[in-house]
Amino acid sequence: SDHYKTEVLTSLLRKENLDDETIGEMINTSKTIDSDYYRSVVLNRALNKNGLSNTSFQRALESVKDIDSDHYKSEVLTSLLREPINDDLQMTLINITGSIDSDHYSSSVLEVILNKQKVNDQVFTVLMERTGSIDSDHYAALVMKDALSHLLSDNNMISLFEAAGRIGSDHYLSEVLMTAAPKVKNSSERVK
Fold first, then answer.
1. Residues ≥6 apart with Cβ < 8 Å to 130
2. Cα–Cα distance between 132 and 34 in angstroms, integer?
3. Closest CA to 108 of 71, 67, 133
4. Interacting residues of 126 by C-beta distance below 8 A, sequence separation 6+
5. For every one of its 192 residues, what pLDDT tens digit does the chain have, with 9 covering 90 and above?
């Protein structure tokens, strides 16, 4: 049963001296757990271990793809983001947010990426494309305004404005543009 598998895996994950390979196998085993709740318990416990490899993070992302619940999916993705992850994993994670139906949970994960990860221009562009595809103008604007609180390159600013062009609400579009105005003033001609 899912309950029994979770009990076994979480009791093993309480041990201090587990190596990354062992934790990775436990993450892999979580794919056999059908319950979103129990799978998220195992994944969150595993992701709280320090020093996980990119392989273990990749396995966690593969397991989280099959979680149907937006709540549990976003919870695990947020746990995964507590440690720095590489650009490829960031891209995969952003793509997974596309399977989150709730704009609230999806935008929350995107904001965690912005606040907890160092993202390059390519990742930022994909993140803004994903933000632009959020149905709710309110949540899309929140992510964009959050992005504007960070140091952004000219390429980042252009990506953000392209995504902002998909905001249908004049109110939320003006919020983003007003937040961006001081940054635009100090940007190159390409951005202006």
1. 94, 95, 97, 98, 106, 110
2. 32
3. 71
4. 91, 94, 95
5. 999 999 999 999 999 889 999 999 999 999 999 999 999 999 999 999 999 999 999 999 999 999 999 999 999 999 999 999 999 999 999 999 999 999 999 999 999 999 999 999 999 999 999 999 999 999 999 999 999 999 999 999 999 999 999 999 999 999 999 999 999 988 888 888
pTM of the predicted protein model: 0.94
Q: Which amino acid is residue 106, in one-letter code?
A: S
Q: Count Cβ neighbours within 10 Å for each residue of 32-71 and write b for 16 or more, e otherwise.
A: ebebbebbbbbbbbbbebeebeeebbbbbbebbeebebbe
Say which residue the tokens 């990749």 belong to.
58
